Amino acid sequence: MTANLTRKLYDERLRTLSEGSVNVNFNAFKDIQWDDPEFAVDTSDPRWVLTSADALGAHPWYREQPLETQIRIGIWRWAVIAKVGMQFENILMRGALDYLYELGNRDEEFRYLTHEITEETHHTQMFQELVNRTGVDTAGGKRWFRKVSRFLPLAGSLYPEAFFTGILAGEEPIDHLQKSALRSGEPVHPLPQRIMQIHIAEEARHISFAHEFLRLRVPHMRKARRGALSVLFPVIMRVLCDVIMIPDRKSAAQVGIPGWVIKDVFWKSEAGRRMLHDLFSDVRMLAEDIGLMNKVSRPLWKALRIDGRPARFRGEPALHTD
């Protein structure tokens, strides 16, 4: 696929995404049976044990813990990821509204992005409801991120290409983790399973939009601005990935996870390194296609340990030969 999208083709794709939002959409309190006994958060239910798709769930320390401990940590892990996910969606909505404010009349981006904001509203509701049901009192992202998040939405209008890069940095890791959990074939509690099914279905459109937005705009950016984005791109990806994936050590200690385990899982262990590598295959493909891989940025991807083979197509399952 060529990196240079015409505006006409871009608008056609946005209309398709908008129609998808009309035809396939979910309501957080209609499409999840929160009070179904099957969805109850039972601290003796082994389906809360983390799958091996999660680097923490695959770690030997976790696997050696008693079942009761694995369940408690599993519930905590789902709650923390949901809370951070809610915070990212909140930033997305505020930044998207900031971007939309100055759009001209008849711009297809207005309709699509308002659909996306509507869907993200439901996502924040279901993520927060999951947190509430678990009883885990988590603050979500680390303190510095919660402070900075007050200002991040301003990039929606000031530097939209960087803003939607950040959106991808928030969406891709969660999407990858959720798909991997469902593909693992291991038992998953029906409540997070249903939430993941809904989130994956709608998030596919959101990720598609961010890809299409960058494919349209980046090749036509001025050289200096594009050069700056090529350097910012991997940095944004890595920093925001860490915000989503790495739990606060103090919070982890409260559920009995030693600091050395968190450090090993993110990202020293074999499973951790593999996950970090796999998370970015789609965006490596995007960066290659739109000209953000160059002699300055490529070494940075490697230094951040997120380089490697780009995906051949979006959503390609990871291939491991070991």
UniProtKB/TrEMBL annotation:
It comes from the Bacteria. InterPro entries: AurF/CmlI, Ferritin-like_SF, RNR-like. It holds the Pfam family AurF. This is Diiron oxygenase. The lineage of its organism: Bacteria, Bacillati, Actinomycetota, Actinomycetes, Kitasatosporales.
